[in-house]
Amino acid sequence: MNTVLTLSEPLPPPGRRAAHDAVKRAKRLRHQVGRAIADFGMIEAGDKVMVCVSGGKDSYTLLDILLQLQKKAPVSFSITAVNLDQKQPDFPAHVLPEYLQSIGVDYKVIEQDTYSVVTRVVPEGKTMCSLCSRLRRGALYAYAEDEGFTKIALGHHRDDLVATFFLNLFFHAKLSGMPPKLLSDDGRHVVIRPLAYVCEDDIAAYADAKQFPIIPCNLCGSQENLQRRQVKKMLDSWERETPGRIEQIACALGDIRPEKLSDPKLFDFLSLGKRGDDGVPGAWLTGESIAHMHGEI
Ligand code: SF4
Prior knowledge:
By secondary structure, the protein is an alpha/beta fold. It has a single domain, classed as HUPs (Rossmann fold, 3-Layer(aba) Sandwich). The protein has 11 helices and 6 strands. Strands 3-2-1-4-6-5 form a 6-stranded mixed sheet, with helices on both faces. Bound molecules: iron/sulfur cluster. Iron/sulfur cluster (SF4) is lined by residues 88, 128-129, 132-133, 217-218, 220, 222.
């Protein structure tokens, strides 16, 4: 007997399907950014938010979504887009101002020649990104302070948070990452990462659909450092073999059980199951008792 398979609902033509996916993606991004803002208390009434835009897909997406959410937000806050022109060779200085003007957002371009500093200080062939980012951060933080911005919004996303976690684990022997909200080391700035729940693929597709005028970051000719490249390669291959693994790791970063790890600074193992009031005998620390037991002293 022949079996005839019928689809209850015919698939929409490819163009319509792509448009449908884009609408769903935009909705998902707004939802994830809104949730991150709420979960971490990123924005409150009266905040002056400085959104750092580099011309890359992440910061364009961040600005775009924040502007959409601003219209429906339960609190009133201001947004200013700020770009640092680092004087890289061939930097198309007109692209960002033209775009920012076209969308009608308040914006500022700061000019500071960090490129010359970086190329002078970093030996040839070495990656310049770490010093470059530090100088960029310094210039942007200083501007935020001068202008009284209460929050600095950066475009790091979920995959950046996961990659930083593994960089710290593999190369610095610590369980530490890139938090969605952070007080700067000098205690003067609150940095927020509203894209903390958004995956990079969604950002890339969103930026593509929106046709943001992307400016590449590597006009300076620098490459990502080897450690970051290694981690990225590892995460990409994990995701290929086990789709959903990066999301699982990202969820784990927000569900930490200090009592199941080994850091006595985070969990009071000393008091756990303790029967007496005695402190820790010094002999445990010096190893004397054990040496006695083994007749070594
Ligand atoms: S690629 Fe160039 S501009 Fe981008 S962070 Fe690295 S050194 Fe700076």
